[in-house]
């Protein structure tokens, strides 16, 4: 239990980095083209299982309180 909070922070950071990577590579799916499609097409077969969940997560509205989930 002593590393539970650290584990949660690491998982949250991993999720944010994964979202950032997906946005950079597949940003054109949500209207933000950054990389040429050639590189995205080479990675696409590995990303297909996670694509719908990512698009739903990146395009949903967020409340200001979701940003500050730490201890107040």
Mind explaining what this structure looks like?
- With 72 residues, this protein is mostly helical.
- The chain has one domain (4-66).
- It is built from three helices and no strands.
- The longest helix has 23 residues, at 4-26.
- The protein starts with a helix and ends in a 5-residue tail after the last helix.
Q: Please describe the biggest sheet, giving its number of strands, its sense, and whether it closes into a barrel.
A: none
What's the number of domains? 1
Q: For the residues shown, what is the average pLDDT?
A: 77
Q: Which percent band covers the strand fraction?
A: under 5%
Flag low-confidence runs.
none
| Tally of DSSP β-strands | 0
Number of helices: 3
Query: Can you give the helix content as a percent range?
Result: 55-70%
**Whole-angstrom Rg:** 15 Å
Order of helices and strands: HHH
Distance between the termini: 21 Å
Characterize the overall form. Answer: globular
Class from helix and strand fractions: mainly alpha
Outline the fold blueprint.
Blueprint lengths: L3 H23 L10 H23 L4 H4 L5
Helix pairs in contact: 1-2
Concise account of the structure shown:
This protein is an all-alpha fold. It has 3 helices and no strands.
Features:
72 residues, mainly alpha, 69% helix, globular
